[in-house]
């Protein structure tokens, strides 16, 4: 994985990881509005499949949840709802997502969120040797072992990628 030598100040996500003794690498890139994981993977030289996006969604009761998905895949909300026992699931608006997570959209991390939310991870993410996931700021990813998602976040594996 490519890495730029640029200092990044602490975020709630990196503080959360450090408090738990998680070893991670830092990957800074030039944030591009609406560039998404395609842009970050291109700049960092990392396969987009290994760049994991953090999506804040809500069920039919408007209860928030986080879904972690491969950058090159989409979430089937129908399959996700079925997997978690909800009637329906939909993405939160950017304003609602920011209120729940405490992070600006484009810089949302599953670590150190403002509100505790259930976390679901596409099961195939856990089979990767290493992933890059948002570190709590636009243009900033952290490289970690996927096992951190289940061991420290208690992320539940689901099959909902399309």
Question: How would you characterize the overall build of this protein?
Answer:
The chain is α/β, with parallel strands linked by helices and 162 residues long. 23% of the residues lie in helices and 26% in strands. It is built from five helices and eight strands. The chain has helices at residues 12-19, 36-44, 77-84, 94-101, 147-151; strands spanning 25-28, 51-59, 64-70, 89-91, 119-122, 131-137, 140-144, 156-158. Strands 1, 2, 3, 4, 5, 6, 7 and 8 form an eight-stranded mixed sheet that branches. A hairpin with a 2-residue loop joins strand 6 and strand 7 (140-144). It is globular. The chain starts with 11 loop residues before the first helix and ends with a strand. The model is unreliable at 1-5 (pLDDT under 50).
Q: SS-based structural class?
A: alpha/beta
- Percent strand equals 25-35%
Rg, Å, rounded: 15 Å
- Give the tally of β-strands: 8
- How would you state the average pLDDT, rounded? 94
N-to-C SSE series? Answer: HEHEEHEHEEEHE
Short description:
The protein contains five helices and eight strands. It is α/β, with parallel strands linked by helices. Strands 1, 2, 3, 4, 5, 6, 7 and 8 form an eight-stranded mixed beta sheet that branches.
Main attributes of the structure:
disordered N terminus, 23% helix, alpha/beta, 162 residues, 5 helices, globular
């Amino acid at each position: 994985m490519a890495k730029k030598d640029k200092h990044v100040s602490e975020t709630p996500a990196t503080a959360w990881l450090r408090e738990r003794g998680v070893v991670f690498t830092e990957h800074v890139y030039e944030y591009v509005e609406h560039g998404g994981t395609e842009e970050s993977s291109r700049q960092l030289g990392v396969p987009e499949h290994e760049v994991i996006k953090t999506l804040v969604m809500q069920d039919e009761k408007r209860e928030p949840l986080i879904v972690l998905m491969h950058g090159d895949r989409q979430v089937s909300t129908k399959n996700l709802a079925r997997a978690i026992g909800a009637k329906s699931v939909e993405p939160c608006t950017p304003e609602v997502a920011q209120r729940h997570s405490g992070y600006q959209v484009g810089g949302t991390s599953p670590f150190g969120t403002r509100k505790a939310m259930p976390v679901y991870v596409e099961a195939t993410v856990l089979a990767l040797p290493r992933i890059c996931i948002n570190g709590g700021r636009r243009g900033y990813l952290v490289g970690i072992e996927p096992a951190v998602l289940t061991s420290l976040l208690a992320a539940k594996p689901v099959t909902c990628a399309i």
